Amino acid sequence: MRIKFLASSWLTCVLAVLVSSASFAQVTEFQQQQWLNSPAATSHIGNLTGRAKVAGDPVSGDYRRYCLVCHGELGDGNGETAPWLDPRPRDFTLAVFKCRSTPTGTLPTDEDLYDTIARGLDRSNMPPWNTFTKQERADLVAWIKHFSPRWQTEKPGVPIQIPPEPEVTAERVKAGEDVFSRVQCWKCHGVEGKANGPSASTLQDDLGRPILAYNFAEGGRFKCGSTDQDLYRIFMTGLDGTPMPSFADNLKPDEAWDLVFYLRTLQPFPSKAKEIAKQLGLKPVNPNPTGP
Amino acid sequence: MTSQFRQKLAAVVSALMLIAVGALLLGRNVIAAGEGSITGAVKLSGTAPHMKGIDMSKDPYCVKQNANSPVKMENVIVGSDGGLENVVLYLSEGLAGAAASAVPSQEPTVDQHNCVYVPHVLAMDVEQKFKVTTSDQTTHNIHPLPAPGSSNIGWNKSQPPGAPPIETSWKAPEAISVKCNIHPWMHGWHVVVKGPYAITDEKGLYTLKNVPPGSYTVTAWQEEYGTQTEKVNVAAGQAAKADFTFKAK
After folding, report:
1. Half-sphere exposure of A155 (CA within 13 A, CB side)
2. Nearest residue in B to A2, CA atom
3. Would you state the pLDDT for residue A32?
4. Using CB atoms within 10 A as the burial measure, which of A57, A221, B147, B223 is most buried?
């Protein structure tokens, strides 16, 4: 008996060393198999539990059928179609995601990935996969997580807090304009939100590919949702992998809501904020208040 | 013995074993009194490459701040006698025990000043806290880009005028490229190493302090020319010498 548990404890030691070294080495199929058997290869969304093995089943799995053609067998974003796509399909082996509720540089929550699958990513080839059942989406989230060692060693970040949305007022819209001017959103997004700021033409994603700033005046959906809360979340978390930084360290919740209201005035849709801006006769901000 | 009990016992025994192994590793090299140092010069042989001037016209503030002194790229900075600035020196082999795991308490700082990173290369230890500050009246975003798959995780934060410093650290040794997307010419490095480090001054000189006696491999890192290594023996209380010469491409 004694020999047995001594042997098993040694085995635990060896396994611990193996697992800890996994995150620093290049991904092998053996490691991927290990990750597939780890607790991180499940997802928990509300009452749902997603299982990677279901979505990744080589015969019946949704990943093979719907995702592999772009995201690739190894989840590295090098599927058959990838060379023709811009932006390129997400490389799941890096676990860097645009749409998160968590701070910049942290892993998204399972819910974040689950929402992204159903929402799709506007102005990319990722359509809204709202044809999947909730269970299918949960299974896919678990499968996506087995591609990167980060899920073995890190926990998702703590979602940023979004306080209840206040009432839109003229003061808030004006204050939002000040925030827009002060933190210099216009450097990329332009003073009228037309994605034509002075730095817009030089923007690159993390892989060095050209990327466009969001054009508010065009009025498309945001990459990560379309509600006021989504907009708040986008500039507070930043879109990792892109030039869009996090403003969480520099905006108080009230200022963030003010900015949300001002940004709404740049979009072509009717809104209370836009009505207020019209009444106030708001002009685009002056990009060089101190002069060149 | 129930299987549950067996598992618990196994877990406890393996934890104890890990601690014992760790203690052995840590205890192996206790720092002897009288640490030595390594000093030297890093030079560039051949013709130094031309450093292009930077066009900052995308941001009038940056132009104005540098109106009196045109700014050039800083990839290769060579002094009058061939000394190479901004080369990071560290011990790539031979460090053991407490000297390898000690983390300096002072915080290196990189400032965004007149739309460039000062210094251009910031060296630091693994897990050492460092600061990113801004003295500019224009918004920057600080966007470190660790290599794909690195155990360092990239992030991207804005610093508008008057923003507080960002204070953070890196997990693993790596030369991390840092950029500002708003000012695409802004490029710098966070060079993360394990153990003591030094960076060459404008004459290409350096001193690696707090090196326990022993034999080491010293590595010199330069962003354009890569790395060079040299074997060095350090005696207690003595300054060993290691000079490096990079060849211009």
Report:
1. 3
2. B6
3. 83
4. B223
- Identity of the residue numbered A263: L
> Cβ A249–B148 below 8 Å, yes or no?
no
Q: Touching check for A161 and chain B: CB below 8 Å?
A: no
How high is the ipTM of this complex?
0.86
- 3-class secondary structure, B97: helix
**8 Å CB contact between A97 and A113:** yes
Q: Which helix (H) or strand (E) holds A286?
A: none
Contacts of B162 by beta carbon, 8 Å cutoff, 6+ apart = none
Half-sphere exposure of B131 (CA within 13 A, CB side): 12
State the smallest CA–CA distance between residue B38 and chain A in angstroms.
30
pLDDT tens digit string along B48-60?
999 999 999 999 9
**How many CA atoms lie less than 13 Å away from A77 in the CB half-sphere?**
20
One-letter amino acid identity for A287? Answer: P
- B163 in contact with chain A, both atoms CB, cutoff 8 A: yes
How many contacts does A have with B, using Cβ atoms within 8 A?
124
Q: Which residue has the higher pLDDT, A254 or A29?
A: A254
Residue A6 has pLDDT above 70, yes or no: no
**Could you identify the residue written with the tokens 């995150």?**
A23
Q: Which residue has the tokens 């290594």?
A: B229
- Residue B51 touches partner A, C-beta closer than 8 Å: no
Select from A79, A89, A77, A82 the least CA-distant residue to A127: A89
Among B160, B105, B170, B109, which Cα is nearest to B136's? B160
